[in-house]
DNA sequence: CCTAGATAGTTCGCATGCGAAATAAATCGA
DNA sequence: TCGATTTATTTCGCATGCGAACTATCTAGG
């Protein structure tokens, strides 16, 4: 109703994400992997050997973002970077055995998060939330997208 | 339904927040202030002279977070830090005239963001979203809160 | 062919915020 | 009253990701 209430959505979203990241980091402790890292693992689990740019687009990361992510995950021996045989500029990403194991671990770790994320809300309500979050990508386009 | 769909909430939330931040930064260009900075301005607009810790709690920032935020906003001449007369450890935060002006600007800037955040959703749906975001703070507690 | 643009990644400097450890001031208990 | 603990804030090193500028490669057009 009042514009004041809607104002708060910006802050609510910011805070909610910070909470989630912090909570996941605390759970994670010395094992496993961040949410974004898990995202890349899941992508590679479905389509091993994607281009960095493709992965970045799927994760909504710009070039520096995906580049850094790949650096860190390569250093952690979760993925490997190999030159594309057909394009000297491009690199393709591949899971390492450790990365493949981390997928299973991450999926397990997400079970608790999922439970908390949906706790106290009906399926219909979660659908609304998911739709709202999904369409953020359309409603807040990047650069010259539209 | 399928656990797969709920898995995605983690990523949807992460991406949504990144989108929003990026979009706001792009709009912001060379003027105005980030969402979190606006949050602090609004707090001071209602209760000038809060303790740093209080502000941090309201913004869901830990000590290093609020400390850095205050540093940057002090450097930008939006707020002032003054020692608490009754407690030598504590600092209270006050708006500068520039900060007071920035509040109005920020509120204006949020109008467009609000419109986009709620665009295409009914009031009832936005209520669900707001409730979901709000209760994240309960469902993902910090440290030893509970 | 060869040059002009487009494209894939990287690097740099910055902003944000974290946890852990440090500092300084306040308070509590013997 | 004085040492031990608690509390407010800062500092440090790190992770994440951005925009801008750069590098290297590819692709078109002449």
From TrEMBL, chains A, B:
Q: Which residues form the HTH marR-type domain?
A: 6-138
Looking up InterPro entries in the UniProt record yields:
HTH_MarR-typ, MarR/SlyA-like, WH-like_DNA-bd_sf, WH_DNA-bd_sf
Single GO MF annotation: DNA-binding transcription factor activity
SUPFAM superfamilies in the record, alphabetically?
A: Winged helix' DNA-binding domain
Q: Which PROSITE patterns match?
A: HTH_MARR_2
Example of a GO biological process term: response to stress
Q: What is this protein called?
A: MarR family transcriptional regulator
């Amino acid at each position: 109703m009042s514009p004041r209430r809607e104002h708060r959505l910006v802050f609510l979203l910011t805070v909610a994400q910070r909470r989630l990241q912090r909570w996941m980091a605390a759970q994670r402790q010395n094992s496993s992997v961040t949410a974004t890292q898990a995202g890349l693992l899941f992508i590679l689990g479905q389509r091993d050997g994607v281009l960095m740019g493709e992965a970045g687009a799927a994760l909504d990361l710009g070039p520096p973002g995906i580049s850094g992510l790949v650096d860190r995950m390569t250093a952690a021996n979760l993925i490997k970077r190999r030159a594309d045989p057909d394009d000297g500029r491009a690199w393709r990403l591949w899971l390492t055995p450790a990365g493949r194991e981390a997928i299973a671990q991450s999926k397990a770790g997400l079970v608790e998060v999922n439970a908390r994320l949906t706790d106290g809300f009906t399926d219909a309500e979660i659908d609304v939330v998911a739709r709202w979050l999904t369409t953020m990508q359309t409603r807040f386009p990047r650069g010259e997208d539209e």
